[in-house]
Amino acid sequence: MRSVRPARDDAGVDDDAGTTRLEAFSDGVFAIAATLLVLEFSVKGVPGPRLGHALVDLWPSYLAYATSFLTIGVIWINHHYCVQTMARADRTLMFLNLLLLLTVAFLPFPTKLVAQYLQQSGERDAVYAYDLTFVLMAIVYNVWWRYASAGRRLIGERVPESSVRAITRAFNPGVPMYATALLVAVFSPLASVVLTFAIAAFYLPSAALFAER
Amino acid sequence: MRSVRPARDDAGVDDDAGTTRLEAFSDGVFAIAATLLVLEFSVKGVPGPRLGHALVDLWPSYLAYATSFLTIGVIWINHHYCVQTMARADRTLMFLNLLLLLTVAFLPFPTKLVAQYLQQSGERDAVYAYDLTFVLMAIVYNVWWRYASAGRRLIGERVPESSVRAITRAFNPGVPMYATALLVAVFSPLASVVLTFAIAAFYLPSAALFAER
Amino acid sequence: MRSVRPARDDAGVDDDAGTTRLEAFSDGVFAIAATLLVLEFSVKGVPGPRLGHALVDLWPSYLAYATSFLTIGVIWINHHYCVQTMARADRTLMFLNLLLLLTVAFLPFPTKLVAQYLQQSGERDAVYAYDLTFVLMAIVYNVWWRYASAGRRLIGERVPESSVRAITRAFNPGVPMYATALLVAVFSPLASVVLTFAIAAFYLPSAALFAER
Amino acid sequence: MRSVRPARDDAGVDDDAGTTRLEAFSDGVFAIAATLLVLEFSVKGVPGPRLGHALVDLWPSYLAYATSFLTIGVIWINHHYCVQTMARADRTLMFLNLLLLLTVAFLPFPTKLVAQYLQQSGERDAVYAYDLTFVLMAIVYNVWWRYASAGRRLIGERVPESSVRAITRAFNPGVPMYATALLVAVFSPLASVVLTFAIAAFYLPSAALFAER
Description:
The structure is a homotetramer of 213-residue chains. In chain A, 72% of the residues lie in helices and 0% in strands. With 213 residues, chain A is mainly alpha-helical. Chain A has ten helices and no strands. In chain A, helix 7 (123-149) runs antiparallel to helix 9. The longest helix of chain A has 27 residues, at 123-149. The first copy, chain A, has helices spanning 6-9, 17-36, 51-57, 59-83, 91-106, 108-117, 123-149, 161-171, 174-187, 189-207. Residues 1-16 and 208-213 of chain A have low confidence and may be disordered.
């Protein structure tokens, strides 16, 4: 975008800038949401002699932080990979993208809930909120990609169909996986968070990223 | 900007960099203000067994979050669309832009007020503060655009007059709409917030974005 | 920077990328510091019926917010204007730039002090801290520019000497003005903050920005 | 990235965009983590007449702030310097980069611990947490660079071997230095923080930055 000067290149207003516009704002929100996660950590009111123990007892916070941070990072990488296949962005995609960012930017709150309540009374509700956010995010992300790719609506001409199909295949397991994590939370909230961590750390990097290669 | 090297391209200092300079800082503020909204959410001191209920009772927070997030997102999209019609930025536009960002960056505070007080004693004052911020923002945004577009002061040569007029038409209802929301708050603070949400979710995307197409 | 590919354009590593690298990080810190200012606002524990009054009583917060936001905005605009005259950045400039950002990123704290203590016991110390931060910032900013411009050390060849001198002239009053604000605080902390606001709102935009034009 | 349009330049999807993608997200996280450090400062509940003293007593906060800010700044500068030698990024580098950002974005928390506990009961545990974060960060950063540079895996063709070796030499002392700081904390937590500050302020700028020149 930065170097596109529509007033000079076009008679009207630049059409293609759409995807860059999309990326600049999305980049910002992804990076900020990931970095704000650190604000969940707190040892407020912990007396000095107990600090060491308190820092060890914070392990649910570390787990929640790593899970959410890696998930946002992987979503961010995949987001760029998808946007690169698009020749343009239209109004609907822009709005779907806003909805996606709305769920990503919300993540620090349920992450904090997990950090505060895991292994304590209320942990199930905290993890439900956490998992539901991921399910919602996965649904919106799927709709976002399906809108762009259906009938190659926004896909660039030279992008091979195999690339588009590979991305779609990579998107398929997202919602079922996070729905499974939600189900697991009924039996064990901790296991559910560990599963969500594993999805971010193992599944997503290997499957969704550069799926075709 | 990133790739503009005035020291090489020009005898003096680059004139055109103005709009990119404007965009880089604006992008940052829009993305950060939207993402900071999540900090309004709090279940501090809620005991575990009550967490589920507390999360449901937070619905005014969810409503305020979605309303402010979508509004910032739509303002951001329109901002880029407007800036793309401009061939350059001058000192006055830069300062008006700072005022616009000052109101956008302020939004997380009244959003928090709505989240805390809606459906409780004090809700009217909270929503007044929220709506007043939107009215102010709409006024500054209008002045910003009118300054740039009056007599095509900063508009690029090849941008057709119809594009400029379409944007101006899209700006017209902004102040009246938010003033209406403020009036509605006299009777029902909740209805006022719902109206503000509707403006962000329905009116703005369809009317202001790419108004001409 | 984004589009510079040193591995292809150069035998070694890109020299010129320096100024873009400088700008990208600086842009981020300026925008975030300005937007974090909103976190100073708080009506914690204010009962509903008192909210209206409490929001009016927050006026020192509004004043401090506007003052700091506009100051950061103007510094940011001038920063880019200066960097555009530079053909390259060296190690020392990079480090001076880090020191400048360190003071800018610190600003939300003394801003919060002014917001909390102005018109109350302790206001003098709060405003001293605020003004001292501005004095420090002005000193570092001056050193930063003088390092770059002395003997045209980092200035691009085609940038006319008149541009460089105009910027230097615009930098001259910075330290004395903020030192004056600090002195005024001895007699009236409120007057000192108003003076700092006036510097950001009136003096800087007219004098420092595009000083030559 | 911003100006790369894979749909047009390539048959498939752009390979090289990898490094820019890496930089955009990394830039964001570095700048935000550095700026969030200011949130550690607090004089909550300090009565007006004691404010002056309280601000002086905050010196561990100032020390921790400056140390972390400068360290992030220097890491950021070196990060760009390294990425510029790379012709492309692959999946593994991307994931290692996420891990690096995860440790950088975590830094505001141990920084806050040092600010709160230094010179008080619990200071040793706080500084252990702080130093351990730096050790981890240095390890991940080393792995990141060694992965990219081993056998010139991701290094651009025209980048001379001497540049690569110079960077590797600059990376070598990182882990030992931070491990030393951790050891020093056993005897004196304050000396350990001062050493970490010195590493950021003196060693890194002179040695790691532009190591070859």
